[in-house]
Structures are given as structure tokens and as C-alpha cells.
Design goal:
Helices cover about 45% and strands about 30% of the residues. The protein is α+β, with helices and mostly antiparallel strands and about 160 residues long. The strands form 2 sheets. The chain has a 4-stranded antiparallel β-sheet. The chain has a 3-stranded antiparallel β-sheet with strand order 5-6-7. A hairpin with a 5-residue loop joins strand 3 and strand 4. The relative contact order is 0.17.
């Protein structure tokens, strides 16, 4: 399966910048994996058979949750594209049920970037694009939001 942007490019249009969701979306899965490993270590240290079983059940439950969150984050990141072309901004989410947003660069009024402290350190944030009229779109947790904004505003 090719990228969405490659399927919709107009003649003479070029992709100037591409980004996706930041890897921080894996954080819940990473924490769940750590809990699963911690429970497994506790199972190895337990002295009673009942204690072993409880820790083993907790480790298995945490590992299943971690696996689910890992796959969900990977799929969400894989199916999300955000691009700036020479003519427009294109954002696509979803695989079977697809949601897209497109705005001509000529219609962009302003671009706001919101970053938390961890977002500043890890270089992710939310970008809100305001279009002429009532067009407004917030793209959450994208990687390198300042670079993305600069490619929109520098024409």
C-alpha cells in the first residue's frame, strides 16, 4: 500500500515536508510492558505457590494490555500522514474509515503550535491551522511541529 499523498498529488505539485504522530504515543504501552516485567520478576521471587500464581496472572494481564496498546499505537501512527506540498496541506487519518483534511496554502491565515514541557524536550506538539473564513484544524501530537509550521508559513 502506497502513501495517501502519492495518490492525490496534482500535476506539478511536490511534497515539501512529511511528518506523522510522534513516538510518544507508545508511552502507555511502554509503561505497561514495564509493569508486566516487574510482575514477572515478583513472580520469580514469591515464596508461595499462591503468590507465584497471582504475580503470574498479573504479569500476563499487563503483557496483554501492553501488546494491545503497542499494536494500537503502531497502527494509528502507520495510518496517519501529515504533509505540506507546494500547493496545500494534507492530513489523513485512518485505514478503512478514512478522515482527511486539506487546505490550500493560499487560504492559510495562521498556524499555532502548542507544546507542553515534555513536548518541547521530545519535539512533539499540537498544531492548529486557521484558514480564511471558518476553516480550523488541530493536528495533535505530531513530530517536529515547529518544522511543520515553518514549511507552511515560509513561501
Amino acid at each position: 500500500m502506497g502513501r495517501y499523498i502519492d495518490q492525490i498529488l496534482q500535476p506539478g505539485e511536490k511534497v515539501l515536508y512529511s511528518t506523522t504522530l510522534h513516538g510518544v504515543i507508545y508511552l502507555p504501552a511502554i509503561l505497561a510492558w514495564l509493569v508486566a516485567v516487574g510482575c514477572f520478576v515478583m513472580e520469580r521471587r514469591a515464596q508461595t505457590d499462591g503468590g507465584n500464581l497471582i504475580w503470574l496472572i498479573l504479569a500476563a494481564a499487563a503483557a496483554l494490555a501492553a501488546l494491545f496498546w503497542t499494536l494500537r499505537a503502531w497502527f494509528r501512527r502507520w495510518t496517519t500522514e501529515t504533509d505540506v506540498t507546494s500547493l496545500r496541506i494534507v492530513h489523513k487519518e485512518g485505514f478503512i474509515q478514512r478522515s482527511t483534511f486539506e487546505m490550500n496554502l493560499d487560504k492559510v491565515e495562521s498556524v499555532d503550535v502548542n507544546q507542553s514541557i515534555p513536548g518541547r524536550v521530545l519535539d512533539y506538539g499540537d498544531v492548529t491551522i486557521f484558514g480564511v473564513g471558518e476553516g480550523r484544524k488541530t493536528i495533535a501530537m505530531i513530530a517536529s511541529p515547529l518544522q511543520f509550521r515553518n514549511h507552511i508559513t515560509a513561501r
